[in-house]
Amino acid sequence: MNATARQLTVPQPASDLQGLIASELAPRVTAIDLEGEYPEAFLRALGALGGFADAVAPEYGGSGRGLAATIDTMATVAATCLSTAFTHWCHTACARYIQLSDNADACGDLLPGLASGRLLGGTGLSNTLKSASGIEPFRLRARPVSGGYVVDGTLPWVSNLADEHVFVTGCPVTGDERLVFFVVQCNQPGFRLLDGAHFTALEGTATRACRFREVRIDASRVLAPPARSLAYLRRIQPGLILGQVGMALGLVRDCIRLVEEAGRTLSHVNVFESIQADTLAGRLEALERDVAVLAPEVDAAARHDHRGDGEALRLRVLRCRLTAGELALEAAQAAMLHQGARGYLRTATAQRRLREAYFIAIVTPALKHLRREIARLSG
Asked: What domains, with CATH codes, occur in the chain?
């Protein structure tokens, strides 16, 4: 993927999010989508504006407003560009993983930069989550050494990465088989970013393969050792999953706009489409209400390490994320059908939204993964 960054003047604090998107993101959407342009300059400007700060506590330079505010910013970005919204999710998820660890060194060293956008981060937990659920084998393995671990293996796809970025991942420990979670610095010895496959959408997300050859992870970058890894995974997973709903919210809002836009000239035929804007709007409002209720509960559970109702909360989060993915698919298809031939052009928004909706459906946890977990927890 093309990780070339475009230089951009960082806005003054008085600038607003919508203004930044209109001036610096909207004109680049086609280049991000079709040419794989990575919007690094926009992300750093977004960070300077406070667009990542909600995921970080005030003592580390954030606002501490939490998951609901993080999702709201992500949705606002997603209404224009899902690739950029996904990198926002990767970055804020990374910050949240570190924030929810017990590692004071990692928090103090990394969170201020992540909160401001001076440091950018990704999340490499796709293989970890799928492997922990028995869907695929682990791609990494760590062995304990004095003062930390040494990691070997290759992760096929990790997003929002460049040489100066960091990301979080986890893998089994040799001789223990429980997991260890840790932070990786992309320019550290033994680690290499590799260009991988090209996708039908989300090409501008700096998604790379990650090769580990005797990569040393010091204790200062270990977020959860094996003895605490299960509790840590339970703490971070609901927010990881619920946070992705921000992408769907923004995409659905824009699909409703596309349906309404088409109706100005095609209402005489579009009235026969099975899904209309008002139906989508009603389902979107219901989803937004669910997120508004769930996000504070997820934050509270993570802060206080609640376990008594953990499974019930996790089930509600899974169902919310499933609803979001299904609604994104239906809204994008409706937008494509309402727009008709004009939406089928190579640079049209409607066809891009349809490709992006498929990404929401397959990114970990994919809809089939969600349904599997819901069935397990409900059974």
From this structure: 17-120 (1.10.540.10), 124-228 (2.40.110.10), 229-378 (1.20.140.10)
